[in-house]
Specification:
The complex is a heterodimer of chains A (122) and B (107). Chain A is mainly beta and 122 residues long. Chain A contains no helices and 11 strands. In chain A, the strands form 2 sheets. In chain A, strands 2, 4, 5, 6, 9, 10 and 11 form a 7-stranded mixed sheet that branches. Chain A has a 4-stranded antiparallel sheet with strand order 1-3-8-7, with no helix packed on it. Chain A starts with a strand and ends with a strand. Chain B is mainly β and 107 residues long. Helices cover 0% and strands 50% of the residues of chain B. Classes of the chains: A mainly beta (122), B mainly beta (107). Chains A and B meet through β5, β9 and β10 of A and β4, β5 and β10 of B.
Chain lengths: 122, 107
């Protein structure tokens, strides 16, 4: 059974870099039928897509993040990671990772990790 | 970015009611729209993909419809475990964008 688990610091200082990891079990992250995504949800708000990474390492990012985001794979650990630079209070949110699942020609994000809360404060 | 507008933002309904949520896109999406259910403190769960395809394991009381710019999620007979917030997500035109959510509450 595929499972995802986010981890990382729960508190980040303004202007610093937020770094999170998503550990995947039950499948290989470089399996050809998978790609992976990051999302976030500010307290009491809706969901926002941050970016995707494919099994080969190709990435796409939300333009609203102004090039502050980087997603990478670590195949040796079966993990993928999110880095968000120059954080502000607006980046405080629950961050989720998810598998992008394909049933051609459509896709969906399933399953999701449980989420990890990140607070931005000095 | 494509704007996704859900309506209503919230609704109150009773167990057994038929509930329909609408998602309208600012541009045509073909059928590349998904619906997610999120319960408080939990991660979203995929219900419907490709506008009308039920994800394996999702109860048959959930159904999706529509194409182009107007889509619906219908719960045919609301159950206690269905009280949650529902989001649509378009992944047809970059970047993927969510609707603002519809909170389904107990009447």
């Amino acid at each position: 059974q595929l499972q995802l688990q986010e981890s990382g610091p729960g508190l980040v200082k303004p202007s610093e870099t937020l770094s999170l990891t998503c550990s995947v079990s039950g499948a290989s992250i470089n399996s050809h039928d998978h790609s992976w995504g990051w999302f976030r949800q500010a307290p009491g708000k809706g969901l926002e897509w941050l970016g995707n990474i494919s099994d080969s390492g190709s990435t796409s990012y939300n333009p609203s993040l102004n090039s502050r985001v980087t997603i990478s794979l670590d195949t040796s650990k079966n993990q993928f990671s999110l880095k968000l630079t120059s954080v502000t209070a607006a980046d405080a949110a629950v961050y989720y990772c998810a598998r992008r699942w394909f049933e051609v020609p459509y896709s969906g994000f399933d399953p999701w990790g449980q989420g990890t809360l990140v607070t931005v404060s000095s | 970015a494509i704007q996704m507008t859900q309506s209503p933002s919230s609704l109150s309904a009773s167990v057994g009611d038929r509930v329909t949520i609408t998602c309208r896109a600012s541009q045509g999406l073909r059928n590349d729209l998904a619906w997610y259910q999120q319960k408080p403190g939990k991660a979203p769960k995929l219900l419907i993909f490709g506008a009308s395809n039920l994800r394996t394991g999702v109860p048959l009381r959930f159904s999706g419809g529509g194409s182009g710019t107007d889509f619906t999620l219908t719960i045919s007979s609301l159950q206690p475990e269905d009280f949650a917030t529902y989001y649509c997500l378009q992944d047809y035109i970059f970047p993927p964008t969510f609707g603002q959510g519809t909170k389904v509450e107990i009447k």
